[in-house]
Amino acid sequence: MELALESNAFFMGVEYLAVFCCGLMGGLCAVRKNYDLIAMLITAWLTALGGGIVRDIVLGSLPPVGIADKGFVITALVSGLAVAVFHPEVDKLKWSMLTIDALSVGLFAVNGTSKAMILGMSGMTSVFLGMITALGGGLVRDMLLNDVPMFIRDKHWYAIPSAVGSVLTVFVCKGVQARVLNFNAEVALDVSIVVLVVVMRLLSVKFNITMPGAMVRHEV
Amino acid sequence: MELALESNAFFMGVEYLAVFCCGLMGGLCAVRKNYDLIAMLITAWLTALGGGIVRDIVLGSLPPVGIADKGFVITALVSGLAVAVFHPEVDKLKWSMLTIDALSVGLFAVNGTSKAMILGMSGMTSVFLGMITALGGGLVRDMLLNDVPMFIRDKHWYAIPSAVGSVLTVFVCKGVQARVLNFNAEVALDVSIVVLVVVMRLLSVKFNITMPGAMVRHEV
Amino acid sequence: MELALESNAFFMGVEYLAVFCCGLMGGLCAVRKNYDLIAMLITAWLTALGGGIVRDIVLGSLPPVGIADKGFVITALVSGLAVAVFHPEVDKLKWSMLTIDALSVGLFAVNGTSKAMILGMSGMTSVFLGMITALGGGLVRDMLLNDVPMFIRDKHWYAIPSAVGSVLTVFVCKGVQARVLNFNAEVALDVSIVVLVVVMRLLSVKFNITMPGAMVRHEV
Questions:
Q1: Chain A closest CA to B85's CA: distance in Å?
Q2: Which of A43-52, A150-159, B176-185 has the largest mean confidence?
Q3: How many angstroms separate the Cα of A219 from the Cα of each of A215, A216, B29, B196?
Q4: B85 — phi, psi (to 5°)?
């Protein structure tokens, strides 16, 4: 099984960066609540890799990458250690962190969806699995720390870009399976999708674009 | 694999109705907490189908119906959209909603138990899986929205009827496997079990019948 | 598949005792929050067996022992009933309960890790699965009752002893696989690991030994 965005050292580097930054964000939540080092390590690990763990359990692709892949696990744990020391710096990097978090959402959505398509899931199932990969890590972290999950709390677009990215990835995968797209086209499109997810998320925060809530109806 | 209560259009219609109404109840929780449309859709989906997803993961029957069956997924998502518009009406339907919620608990208990028995699980395991199907959706919703699960919070009977329904379904399935019951008898008994679950739940709410708590002992 | 610490009646007895006491601790949390009998039973069951259930789902070893093994399930449910009556006594047994809880953490870590190694997982994956078995029950209980998990809240060593126990168990299993250790040596070492975990946990509580938190840095 080969994912387009894991096909060369550059993409793998980006994925490790995404895992590392997700871990930083997760560990930072534990630091803010004054938990100890173990809590930071566990929170960093689950934030970085929890989405993929849930995806692999739902796919039946066991043991999950998030507990079996030495590189990813060590990266996640190192991010937990790093945040114990560098939390003041991490805390200041709001826009950088926001960007890298959006990058990880995009990357995890594309890779999660592609992995599901390669394992023969339908398009709809793959979209769910892509979104689970993208959003699951933050969900597990927030359930652990007793917060309402960020994709529910955050009024800005968070789930929407991951949904858009996952749906577009399904079309790319279908194009590849129909031999309409070659490998290079797949890579180019996957990268574009990740960029689109990042841009959607950043624009939403920058210009305070939010989803509507329930319709307000006073006449009833 | 054929579930008795999915054997004809009427039963399928009832199941779709149960999914839809569970979704309405879930979405309503998100509306009450002022979350956005995405939160409503996710909450509606997980309330309606989360129990079955957990059951399928525990059974190893992957991918779970709740992310793979187009009909159920679309029904659940439509219920999330519907509640965004019709939440004032849904909010007023207390007894109707209570009844349909009880109906879904009964139906999901019977179908969850039957599915486990058909897949060769023991009676005890099937009871657990039936109860997980019946109660899991509300559990996932409440964990997501940071509430204590309803089957713990609600003093009225909620888990008890699902347990009774699941246990009775095991006996029906054993009767079918032993060729003591034919298909029509199975359908009739399954329907009776669903009705029993609904009646138990409604009587408990109506007459404020509750389970005892811990024994109060002042002498210690 | 044979686990060293399930190889004779004495070890099985210890495991049942651990399940029973975990169940008591879980049920007690429900009693303290004034929930009803059903909540006590569910909390007792999930505290006692939830860690193993999560481990078996992650391992793909289905159906999980925690819903399929009559002996363990009945033990867990009986502990839930027992705590409804004997909660004042259980509440007073602080150090006894702490010791038996530590015993269950040690035992579940060793058995969880061994089970994963026997099923062919790598050492790192087995450590995760051992820790999940040891800590998962309390995690599920605390998520259910809307608390921050004990291994995050409790400043004393809780996750650390389970990690040490799991890592040491991996070495023992590797010794057995390399035929350096015979069965009796494995049993002796496994027992020593459990004792070590208990001692680490108790010393940490007794002498208030805690993990450091994030580094405090005022210069930034």
A1: 5
A2: A43-52
A3: 12, 9, 21, 39
A4: -95, -45
A94 burial (CB, 10 Å; 0-12 / 13-18 / 19+) is exposed
Our CA dihedral for C12, C18, C23, C25, rounded to 10 degrees, sits at 170
Burial classification of residue C189, based on how many CB atoms lie within 10 Å of its CB (0-12 exposed, 13-18 middle, 19 or more buried): buried
- Kindly list the distances between the CA atom of residue C219 and the CA atoms of A83, A91, C215, in Å, as whole numbers in the listed order: 16, 14, 12
Q: Which residues of chain A have a Cβ shorter than 8 Å from any chain C Cβ?
A: 30-31, 34-40, 42-43, 53, 57, 60, 62-64, 67-68, 70, 73, 83-85, 87-89, 143-146
* Cβ-contact B5, B11 below 8 angstroms: yes
Tell me which residue has tokens 């999980």: C64
Mean pLDDT of chain A: 84
CB B46 within 8 A of CB B101: no
Beta bridge partners, B156, equal B210
Domain segments of chain A as ranges: 8-204
Question: What's the Cα-to-Cα distance from C205 to each of A28, A38, B120, C95, rounded to whole Å?
Answer: 26, 16, 46, 10
N-to-C CA span, chain C: 55
End-to-end CA distance of chain B: 55
Using the structure block, give the residue that is written with the tokens 């994956």. Answer: C125
CB contact under 8 A, B211 and C144: no
Q: What is the mean pLDDT of residues C81-101?
A: 79
Q: Which residue has the higher pLDDT, A53 or B13?
A: A53
Phi and psi, residue C107, nearest 5°: -65, -45
State the Cα torsion C139-C144-C145-C149 to the nearest 10°: 20
Beta-carbon contacts of residue C69 (< 8 Å; ≥ 6 apart): none
CA pair distance B163, B186, nearest whole angstrom:
19
> Which residue among A70, A83, A84 places its CB closest to the CB of C124?
A70
**In chain C, which residues have their Cβ closer than 8 Å to the Cβ of B62?**
none
User: What is the C-alpha to C-alpha distance for residues A164 and A109, in angstroms, rounded to an integer?
Assistant: 9
Strand partners, A210: A156
Specify burial of residue B212 (Cβ count, 10 A radius: 0-12, 13-18, 19+).
exposed
Each residue's pLDDT tens digit, A18-68: 888 888 888 888 888 888 888 888 889 988 998 888 888 888 888 888 888
CA distance B159 to chain C (A): 7
CA atoms within 13 A on the CB side of C169: 39
Nearest residue to B30 (alpha-carbon basis) of B11, B14, B45, B18:
B45
